[in-house]
Amino acid sequence: MFIAAAIGAVAFLPSIVLNIALACGAPWGAYAMNAQHKVIPPELRKAFIVPTCLQFVALFVLLSAGGILPEIIPFLITRILSFFFALYVTFYTATVLFSTSYKERTVMGSFAVVSAVCFWIVAVGTLNF
Question: What pTM was computed for the model?
């Protein structure tokens, strides 16, 4: 699980960086929101704050469940959150892969698929059969 958590964290970081950059006004709109905007309009930038915070929590849970970070929250809650975020990243992956933007599908889609697989490996690894 350690290796899957490390790979998943590295593959998930571009999504977090992209959301932060888009919220700050970077011209990377071709990699998000079906490439509707080259630069996200200021009134839409606020919409990137909550997903970015959620992704930071998901990253923390992945690293905690994978044994890279120490357990701060009880393991049962970490296990539940691992499955929740595995499902969250799977839905995120689906939205990216069905995007009409070629750049979003190929670049972010690759990272999203690797992230989703790693999140599921770590989540299932918490079951301790």
Answer: 0.91
